[in-house]
């Protein structure tokens, strides 16, 4: 399949959505932001060029005024709390977690309060009340206390429906997940094959047609290879101007 045919397949699917009077909300979540880098500037410039809002999951313990100054002139950027220090507290026999059940709830809550306060001070207008757990993992027993800290939404990876997500649903807290990851974490650690990514988008569109929701695209600017940048440029080119698509700020999704 050629590149042109890959993108045409997506355009055709969106055309069918438009013909039925529907529309699709996309949102972009980029994880592990800390400081201005060439890769971050490339992401910000690319999203600005296509008028695509981007939600940066920022690691509070490692960020400072340099990133704050960098984002000050970028009104299309929202800042979310990415845990505290992105430190793994799980044993080697388990998947990595910072917000797991390996420490007391009081210790984890203290970290999250510190993260909230630090990002609120550094990014007073850009910060949104969204928690993005490092590695997309959080102990369900911690979720009920997030609203008391100030969080109004939680974002992990995968569909919002199902048993796994049901354990994370509590009153007063929205679940706004990412659904499509562009990275091949277990293989090349570069971009996944475009056809695979677009099949994931197509599958997510099927889920939305049945039960509503958004298409959340997940990126990690610090580890993008050239193929990722080319994919994002192509995706934005197809979707940003299509009548059936809306790229949304996560702040708007939370308010909704």
From TrEMBL:
InterPro entries (alphabetical): CE4_u4-like (IPR049591), Glyco_hydro/deAcase_b/a-brl (IPR011330)
Keyword Transferase set for record: no
Gene Ontology BP term (one): carbohydrate metabolic process
Keywords: Plasmid
Domain of life: Bacteria
Protein name: Polysaccharide deacetylase
